[in-house]
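Q: Could you predict the 3D structure of Glycosyl transferase?
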Amino acid sequence: MKTAVCTISTKSHLFKSYALLESVRKYSGADLFCLTTDTNEQPELAFIHHSVLESLDSARAEKIKQRYKNNPDKLRWALKPVYLKYLIERGYDNVIYVDNDIFFYASPDFLFEKLETASFLLTPHFYKAHPHKEQNWLEANFRVGLYNAGFIGAGKNALHILDWWIDCCTYNIKKAYWRGLFDDQKYLDLIPVLFDHVEIIKHRGCNFAGWNEEEAVLQKTGTNELLINNDPLIFIHFAQLSIERFSQPQSMAHDAFNAYLSQLQKHKPGFTFQSKKLTTSSFSTYFYYLRWKFVRLFESKLL
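A: Sure. Here are the predicted structure tokens for Glycosyl transferase:
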């Protein structure tokens, strides 16, 4: 079985890709790939196979590159299924894509084994889903998607699924909750409905993050191994909420955070996480939350 783990990065974030792929290499013999979207420079780590935009020369890839050439974020997101398909067509049986803000603490090889029977793997967000409290999290499942696009597993029989996802990304990558759109991610909701042999990974040690921490039972073993709902930690998605929560000394994932930060600093000396600046995207998200709270309050007065 020929396996690969891949990620996509801009030059400015290559240090995160290095930390990610080194963490995979520690536990797995899978080949490691990084697609850079804004540079042709070779990576500093010899064990990483480097890909560039020019490598992706299919008709579908060209449409993606043309449509999003002026938006680096949308280009990276739209290229996920393109890159997965590219590697499968070059002889890999099973390929895992992960965002470059992910870090592994154990082997992902059991996920490759799942792709021997499944064609496609998805990990749920595992947001809170309570209808009687904190309903904003319940509704988040429907706003941003049931599954997190930071992890995707695809086998050699998944080309038709990837083609469909590529076409969706070509159609539109946009945050428009009222239209059922959330970048490349919301389309994933339909994949288990439209296609067979799709497995939803419910192992809680996979894609552990700040958004699903509170819905899990965390404990440490005698050897200081972190368990999430009795599942061993496999990988953490260090998006902003994860950083904010796991960087706190009282967090049970604090040791895991420190291990991640240490690897980042290895490739970018002096690096520290800064408080997130208010961006147009984050302001829009916060504004939506405030609007949601207002609507809920208004409804409660009417009803």
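Q: Anything worth pointing out?
A: The chain has one domain: 3-274.
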